[in-house]
Amino acid sequence: MAASNGTLLMSRVTLGRALRRLRDETNQLTLAEVASAIGCDISLLSRIELGKRNCSQQHFAKLMDLYKVPAHERDDLAELHAATRERRQPWWARYSEVITTAYERFLSFEAAASAVHEYQVGMVPGLLQTEGYARAVIAAGFASLGPDQIDALVEVREMRQRQRLLETDTPLTCHYVITQAALKFEVGGSQAHQEQLQYLLELSEHPSVELKVIPYERGEEGVQIAPFQIFQFTDDDVPDVAFGESVAGSLTLDDPRDLRRLHRLFTNLVGAALDPDESRDLITRIKNEED
User: Fold this and answer.
1) How far apart are CA 5 and CA 22, in angstroms?
2) How far is CA 229 from CA 139, 161, 173, in A?
3) For the chain, where are the E strands, in sequence order?
4) In this model, does residue 2 exceed pLDDT 60?
5) Is 13 exposed, middle or buried (0-12, 13-18, 19+ CB in 10 A)?
């Protein structure tokens, strides 16, 4: 249970999950009962269990006593609690001027995840984008930013690729489903488009990448929903978490009902998509037609 998750956020999420299990499953206590017993607000306790707030040393000690946690388990939890309070800086800290709070949360989960299931309607997944493609997408999506800020966000995307896919001994296991439209949209000009298609062909052969394409003829099965990512973790104490895109920005989804629905949707999308070899054949045809 020690803090092997790599970020402060993930340490908080892991600790919160363990504390919730002790309260609800082991001791059958409500949030109100525990909050009253340790002298804190219900909302604070709830946020601690969700990994959204740090647990103070005082509250942690009171919870351990209230839950009558055995010494060996208390030692493990104390180590995890200490990890939530370390002043560790993730690699993206130096980009704090351009990274929003929502994006930082996304990066934290991506950094700690063991697998991702991602669906994109009209865009290539971020970890598979070339520099030219990423620059064009970021410049269009963040038109109010200056050139230096756009450069920084492009660097962030490149660092994500290196950290989670290209230059790591534990790459993220990536399951991608995209539509044919994502292959046809010309992003960054014709040359950048060709480079992106070639890069997709290369990365689709990566041992931790599975790329499947939904062809136009199966369109009704593949364009009913917005893009989303589901992150999964090796630590049993950390539940799946999903991110969805909307006009209001990125949404974090951790309700079990939402996650079950998204897993079913992803399974259906996989069923509508071509297999990896057929998908590479389609990418090759589109690349050759536009060359």
Assistant:
1) 21
2) 22, 16, 13
3) 115-120, 173-179, 209-214, 228-232, 241-246, 249-253
4) no
5) buried
**Domains 8-83 and 91-290 agree in fold:** no
| Six-digit token string for 26 | 């082991």
> CATH for 91-290?
3.30.870
pTM for the model: 0.83
- What are the DSSP calls for 68-120, one per residue? T--HHHHHHHHHHHHHTT-----GGGGGTTT--HHHHHHHHHHHH-SEEEEEE
Distances (CA, A) of 26 to 40, 138, 192: 21, 47, 56
Q: What is the pLDDT of residues 56-75, one digit of tens each?
A: 999 999 999 999 999 999 99
Backbone angles phi, psi at 188, to 5 degrees: 85, 10
Q: Look at the chain and count its residues.
A: 291
Bridge-based pairing of strands 173-179 and 209-214 is parallel
The CATH classification number of 8-83 equals 1.10.260.40
Q: Give the residue extent of every domain in the chain.
A: 8-83, 91-290
- Give me the residues paired with residue 64 across strands: none
d(C-alpha 3, C-alpha 20), whole Å: 17
